[in-house]
Structure prediction request, 252 residues.
Amino acid sequence: MWKKIRVSILLVILLIVAVNAWRDMNQDWTKPVIVLLHPVNADGSEVTQAYIQQLSAVDMIEAQDYILSQSQQLRGNPVQIYFQLGRQINQLAPKVPETGSMADTIIWSLKFRYYAWRQQESADGRPGVTLYLNYYDPKQTKLLKHSVALQRGKIGSVNLFASGRHSGSNKVVMLHELMHTFGATDKYSMQTGQPVFPEGYAAPDQQPLFPQKRAELMGGYIPLSNQKSITPSKLEDTMISTLTAQEMGWLK
Ligand SMILES: [Zn+2]
Prediction:
Protein backbone atom coordinates (compact mmCIF):
# COMPACT_ATOMS: atom_id res chain seq x y z
CA MET A 1 0.00 0.00 0.00
CA TRP A 2 2.61 2.59 1.11
CA LYS A 3 4.96 1.44 -1.61
CA LYS A 4 2.24 2.08 -4.21
CA ILE A 5 1.60 5.56 -2.83
CA ARG A 6 5.33 6.35 -2.85
CA VAL A 7 5.67 5.19 -6.43
CA SER A 8 2.63 7.23 -7.49
CA ILE A 9 4.01 10.38 -5.83
CA LEU A 10 7.33 9.84 -7.58
CA LEU A 11 5.60 9.39 -10.93
CA VAL A 12 3.61 12.60 -10.46
CA ILE A 13 6.82 14.53 -9.67
CA LEU A 14 8.53 13.06 -12.73
CA LEU A 15 5.53 14.00 -14.87
CA ILE A 16 5.61 17.61 -13.59
CA VAL A 17 9.36 17.83 -14.32
CA ALA A 18 8.82 16.42 -17.82
CA VAL A 19 5.94 18.80 -18.57
CA ASN A 20 7.96 21.80 -17.34
CA ALA A 21 10.96 20.76 -19.44
CA TRP A 22 8.76 20.33 -22.51
CA ARG A 23 7.22 23.76 -21.93
CA ASP A 24 10.67 25.36 -21.54
CA MET A 25 11.77 23.81 -24.83
CA ASN A 26 8.60 24.69 -26.75
CA GLN A 27 7.57 28.31 -26.25
CA ASP A 28 3.93 29.00 -27.15
CA TRP A 29 4.20 32.10 -29.36
CA THR A 30 0.44 32.59 -29.67
CA LYS A 31 0.48 34.00 -26.14
CA PRO A 32 2.34 37.09 -24.87
CA VAL A 33 5.55 36.36 -22.97
CA ILE A 34 6.44 38.32 -19.83
CA VAL A 35 10.15 38.89 -19.29
CA LEU A 36 10.93 39.94 -15.73
CA LEU A 37 14.11 41.99 -15.26
CA HIS A 38 15.85 42.15 -11.88
CA PRO A 39 18.63 44.75 -11.67
CA VAL A 40 21.65 43.79 -9.55
CA ASN A 41 24.25 46.26 -8.26
CA ALA A 42 27.15 44.01 -9.24
CA ASP A 43 30.07 46.16 -8.07
CA GLY A 44 28.29 47.69 -5.08
CA SER A 45 29.20 51.22 -6.21
CA GLU A 46 27.17 54.39 -5.79
CA VAL A 47 27.39 55.16 -9.50
CA THR A 48 25.81 51.80 -10.29
CA GLN A 49 23.15 52.29 -7.61
CA ALA A 50 22.22 55.72 -9.01
CA TYR A 51 21.95 54.21 -12.49
CA ILE A 52 19.71 51.37 -11.28
CA GLN A 53 17.48 53.84 -9.44
CA GLN A 54 16.68 55.76 -12.62
CA LEU A 55 15.85 52.66 -14.71
CA SER A 56 12.24 52.50 -15.80
CA ALA A 57 9.94 50.33 -17.85
CA VAL A 58 9.97 53.03 -20.55
CA ASP A 59 13.61 52.09 -21.31
CA MET A 60 12.38 48.67 -22.42
CA ILE A 61 9.88 49.86 -25.03
CA GLU A 62 12.60 50.03 -27.69
CA ALA A 63 13.49 46.36 -27.10
CA GLN A 64 9.80 45.40 -27.17
CA ASP A 65 9.29 47.24 -30.47
CA TYR A 66 12.41 45.64 -31.94
CA ILE A 67 11.03 42.14 -31.27
CA LEU A 68 7.62 43.15 -32.63
CA SER A 69 9.04 44.42 -35.92
CA GLN A 70 11.62 41.63 -36.40
CA SER A 71 9.05 38.90 -35.75
CA GLN A 72 6.49 40.68 -37.96
CA GLN A 73 8.99 40.64 -40.84
CA LEU A 74 9.99 37.03 -40.28
CA ARG A 75 6.66 35.33 -39.65
CA GLY A 76 3.98 37.73 -40.87
CA ASN A 77 2.49 38.16 -37.42
CA PRO A 78 4.36 39.56 -34.45
CA VAL A 79 5.29 37.76 -31.24
CA GLN A 80 4.53 39.74 -28.13
CA ILE A 81 7.21 40.04 -25.50
CA TYR A 82 6.67 42.42 -22.60
CA PHE A 83 9.43 43.50 -20.28
CA GLN A 84 8.71 44.16 -16.63
CA LEU A 85 11.10 45.80 -14.25
CA GLY A 86 11.25 43.76 -11.05
CA ARG A 87 12.79 44.65 -7.72
CA GLN A 88 16.51 45.08 -7.25
CA ILE A 89 18.34 42.00 -6.02
CA ASN A 90 21.46 42.27 -3.88
CA GLN A 91 22.99 38.88 -4.48
CA LEU A 92 24.85 38.05 -7.69
CA ALA A 93 24.01 34.87 -9.60
CA PRO A 94 26.53 32.03 -9.11
CA LYS A 95 29.75 32.51 -11.08
CA VAL A 96 30.05 30.69 -14.38
CA PRO A 97 32.86 28.09 -14.17
CA GLU A 98 36.01 29.20 -16.00
CA THR A 99 37.10 25.68 -16.93
CA GLY A 100 33.96 24.77 -18.83
CA SER A 101 34.12 21.08 -17.88
CA MET A 102 30.84 19.21 -18.27
CA ALA A 103 30.49 18.44 -14.52
CA ASP A 104 31.23 22.05 -13.50
CA THR A 105 28.70 23.33 -16.01
CA ILE A 106 25.98 20.99 -14.77
CA ILE A 107 26.62 21.93 -11.12
CA TRP A 108 26.66 25.62 -12.04
CA SER A 109 23.34 25.36 -13.92
CA LEU A 110 21.73 23.67 -10.91
CA LYS A 111 23.11 26.38 -8.60
CA PHE A 112 21.82 29.07 -10.95
CA ARG A 113 18.35 27.52 -11.01
CA TYR A 114 18.37 27.28 -7.22
CA TYR A 115 19.39 30.97 -7.04
CA ALA A 116 16.49 31.90 -9.35
CA TRP A 117 14.07 29.79 -7.33
CA ARG A 118 15.16 31.48 -4.09
CA GLN A 119 14.81 35.00 -5.53
CA GLN A 120 11.31 34.25 -6.75
CA GLU A 121 8.49 36.07 -5.05
CA SER A 122 4.84 35.21 -5.36
CA ALA A 123 4.16 38.93 -5.85
CA ASP A 124 6.13 38.78 -9.10
CA GLY A 125 3.55 36.45 -10.61
CA ARG A 126 4.83 33.82 -12.99
CA PRO A 127 7.09 35.37 -15.61
CA GLY A 128 7.89 33.46 -18.80
CA VAL A 129 11.56 34.41 -18.52
CA THR A 130 13.59 36.00 -15.73
CA LEU A 131 16.78 37.93 -16.48
CA TYR A 132 19.16 39.16 -13.79
CA LEU A 133 20.80 42.35 -15.06
CA ASN A 134 24.16 42.77 -13.36
CA TYR A 135 25.25 46.39 -13.70
CA TYR A 136 28.87 47.54 -13.47
CA ASP A 137 30.27 51.08 -13.41
CA PRO A 138 32.26 51.36 -16.69
CA LYS A 139 34.89 53.49 -14.92
CA GLN A 140 35.72 50.55 -12.63
CA THR A 141 35.12 47.65 -15.01
CA LYS A 142 36.47 48.02 -18.54
CA LEU A 143 35.61 44.57 -19.82
CA LEU A 144 32.48 42.64 -18.88
CA LYS A 145 32.49 38.88 -18.38
CA HIS A 146 30.34 36.79 -20.69
CA SER A 147 26.63 36.73 -19.97
CA VAL A 148 24.79 33.41 -19.80
CA ALA A 149 21.25 32.13 -20.19
CA LEU A 150 19.52 28.78 -19.85
CA GLN A 151 16.66 27.55 -22.00
CA ARG A 152 15.71 24.95 -19.37
CA GLY A 153 14.62 27.10 -16.48
CA LYS A 154 14.24 30.20 -18.69
CA ILE A 155 16.72 32.31 -16.75
CA GLY A 156 19.66 34.49 -17.70
CA SER A 157 22.46 36.38 -15.94
CA VAL A 158 23.37 39.40 -18.06
CA ASN A 159 26.40 41.64 -17.47
CA LEU A 160 25.82 45.28 -18.45
CA PHE A 161 27.32 48.74 -18.01
CA ALA A 162 25.66 51.18 -15.62
CA SER A 163 25.76 54.10 -18.02
CA GLY A 164 23.35 55.77 -20.40
CA ARG A 165 26.09 55.81 -23.03
CA HIS A 166 25.92 52.01 -23.12
CA SER A 167 22.15 51.67 -23.11
CA GLY A 168 22.13 50.68 -26.80
CA SER A 169 24.76 47.94 -26.54
CA ASN A 170 23.20 46.83 -23.23
CA LYS A 171 19.95 46.12 -25.09
CA VAL A 172 21.80 44.12 -27.75
CA VAL A 173 23.41 41.94 -25.05
CA MET A 174 20.12 41.56 -23.17
CA LEU A 175 18.19 40.45 -26.26
CA HIS A 176 20.99 38.09 -27.32
CA GLU A 177 20.67 36.33 -23.95
CA LEU A 178 16.88 36.44 -24.07
CA MET A 179 16.94 34.65 -27.44
CA HIS A 180 19.09 31.91 -25.81
CA THR A 181 16.29 31.24 -23.31
CA PHE A 182 14.03 30.51 -26.31
CA GLY A 183 16.54 28.09 -27.83
CA ALA A 184 18.57 30.31 -30.19
CA THR A 185 22.22 29.20 -30.46
CA ASP A 186 25.40 31.29 -30.70
CA LYS A 187 26.60 31.99 -34.24
CA TYR A 188 30.10 33.17 -33.46
CA SER A 189 33.26 31.11 -33.06
CA MET A 190 34.19 30.30 -29.45
CA GLN A 191 37.86 30.27 -30.51
CA THR A 192 38.12 33.54 -32.44
CA GLY A 193 35.04 35.41 -31.22
CA GLN A 194 34.24 36.19 -34.88
CA PRO A 195 30.76 35.61 -36.35
CA VAL A 196 30.57 32.32 -38.26
CA PHE A 197 29.99 32.63 -42.01
CA PRO A 198 27.30 32.47 -43.32
CA GLU A 199 24.91 31.90 -40.40
CA GLY A 200 26.40 34.57 -38.13
CA TYR A 201 26.13 37.29 -40.78
CA ALA A 202 23.23 39.71 -41.25
CA ALA A 203 23.82 39.90 -45.03
CA PRO A 204 25.85 36.83 -46.12
CA ASP A 205 24.97 37.47 -49.81
CA GLN A 206 26.17 41.07 -49.80
CA GLN A 207 28.69 41.98 -52.57
CA PRO A 208 31.34 42.83 -51.59
CA LEU A 209 30.92 40.88 -48.36
CA PHE A 210 32.80 43.43 -46.18
CA PRO A 211 32.13 45.63 -44.39
CA GLN A 212 28.80 44.30 -43.10
CA LYS A 213 26.41 47.01 -41.92
CA ARG A 214 24.59 45.03 -39.25
CA ALA A 215 25.11 42.07 -36.92
CA GLU A 216 22.98 38.96 -36.75
CA LEU A 217 21.80 39.07 -33.11
CA MET A 218 23.25 35.62 -32.27
CA GLY A 219 26.38 36.27 -34.38
CA GLY A 220 26.87 39.07 -31.89
CA TYR A 221 29.20 41.33 -33.90
CA ILE A 222 29.33 43.35 -37.12
CA PRO A 223 32.06 41.80 -39.34
CA LEU A 224 34.28 44.44 -40.96
CA SER A 225 36.70 41.87 -42.44
CA ASN A 226 37.60 38.21 -42.04
CA GLN A 227 39.44 38.94 -38.80
CA LYS A 228 37.84 42.08 -37.44
CA SER A 229 34.37 42.78 -36.15
CA ILE A 230 32.80 45.38 -33.88
CA THR A 231 30.13 45.30 -31.20
CA PRO A 232 26.81 46.81 -32.31
CA SER A 233 26.12 49.99 -30.34
CA LYS A 234 22.36 49.90 -30.87
CA LEU A 235 19.55 47.49 -31.74
CA GLU A 236 19.06 49.03 -35.20
CA ASP A 237 22.52 47.72 -36.06
CA THR A 238 21.28 44.14 -35.60
CA MET A 239 18.75 41.74 -37.11
CA ILE A 240 17.37 38.26 -36.44
CA SER A 241 18.03 35.66 -39.14
CA THR A 242 15.64 33.00 -40.41
CA LEU A 243 17.80 30.29 -38.78
CA THR A 244 17.65 31.99 -35.36
CA ALA A 245 13.89 32.45 -35.79
CA GLN A 246 13.54 28.72 -36.59
CA GLU A 247 15.54 27.73 -33.51
CA MET A 248 13.17 29.76 -31.32
CA GLY A 249 10.10 28.21 -32.95
CA TRP A 250 9.03 31.49 -34.57
CA LEU A 251 8.86 29.69 -37.92
CA LYS A 252 7.43 26.25 -38.53
ZN1 LIG B 1 25.40 33.78 -26.64
